[in-house]
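dumping this here so i dont lose it
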């Protein structure tokens, strides 16, 4: 944006600093932030070596900036929404072509598809680089036994796996993060609530996969993490200082209350169905059994939410 451009202009003739790069990240100017962190990382590697403790936070920040850009893009995996947007854009371009009688619409469509393919390829490369530098950062943090740094890396690696639809890997990463944050921050910290939320989401996503062999178990684990997230956030609200804005946290608590109630109702239905005796098979006059009719009521499904709550 304009503010980020102004910030870059002000620092163009002086060395990039950690605080300047953080400001670019906060403003959401992803490309500028990525360049800033890459520059700082390059200087740190030159001065201290590739795997020195001084480089760990810069590897993390660089990977985080790349991942932020990917998370905000709708073009990474090209779902139905992208297809619909492409078609709408093509329709608008077609209308303009009719009015101006310029190049054929087919050429415009081909160019648009080429541009989208290039953008998706570039974003896929960003995801790969993000994974690599986050892994380097995590390795360094673990070597120097920095639990907070390691936890931050595990969290973003989980986010990256979730973005790629690798929910089993995301669950493992979130669990690793949770273990460390419980040790450093305790069970009622806001940072721990954030991990419980992310882990619950990943568990629900994996349970929703058609090939999941233990969906009910994963949904129970998701519910358990939602409950722990709620407990942690309630503790945060209780410990808040007078005048501290808790509106966002209270909004998440309202959503959590509804989510937990739905999940418990679904679990009760599943348990009731599991305990119910099977209806007797119908038998024809010649003694062959026929399949019983399908039950009229189905189990309520709790669908994973698409967006991560901002805690």
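and the seq i came up w/
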């Amino acid at each position: 944006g304009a503010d980020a451009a102004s910030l870059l202009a002000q620092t163009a003739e002086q060395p990039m600093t950690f605080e300047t790069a953080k400001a670019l990240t906060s403003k959401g100017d992803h490309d500028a932030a990525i360049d800033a962190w890459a520059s700082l990382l390059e200087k740190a590697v030159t001065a201290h070596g590739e795997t020195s403790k001084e480089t760990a936070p810069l590897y993390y920040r660089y990977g985080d900036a790349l991942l932020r850009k990917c998370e905000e893009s709708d073009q990474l995996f090209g779902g139905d929404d992208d297809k619909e947007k492409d078609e709408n854009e093509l329709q608008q371009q077609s209308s303009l072509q009719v009015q101006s009688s310029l190049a054929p619409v087919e050429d415009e469509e081909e160019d648009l598809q080429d541009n989208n393919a290039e953008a998706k390829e570039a974003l896929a490369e960003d995801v790969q680089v993000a994974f690599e530098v986050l892994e380097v950062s995590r390795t360094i943090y673990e070597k120097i036994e920095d639990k907070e740094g390691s936890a931050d890396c595990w969290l973003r690696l989980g986010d990256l796996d979730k973005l790629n639809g690798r929910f089993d890997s995301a669950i493992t990463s979130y669990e690793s993060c949770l273990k460390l944050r419980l040790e450093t921050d305790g069970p009622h910290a806001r940072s721990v609530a954030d991990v419980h939320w992310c882990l619950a989401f990943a568990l629900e996503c994996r349970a929703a996969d058609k090939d999941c062999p233990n969906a009910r178990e994963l949904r129970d684990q998701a519910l358990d993490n939602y409950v722990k997230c709620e407990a942690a956030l309630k503790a945060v609200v209780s410990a808040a200082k007078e005048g501290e804005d808790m509106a966002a946290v209270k909004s998440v608590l309202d959503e959590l209350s509804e989510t937990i109630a739905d999940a418990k109702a679904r679990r009760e239905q599943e348990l009731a169905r599991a305990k119910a005796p099977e209806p007797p098979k119908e038998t024809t006059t010649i003694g062959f059994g026929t399949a019983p009719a399908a039950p009229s009521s189905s189990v309520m499904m709790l669908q994973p939410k698409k967006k991560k709550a901002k805690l």
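Confidence is low (pLDDT under 50) at residues 7-13, 75-87, 89-102, 285-306.
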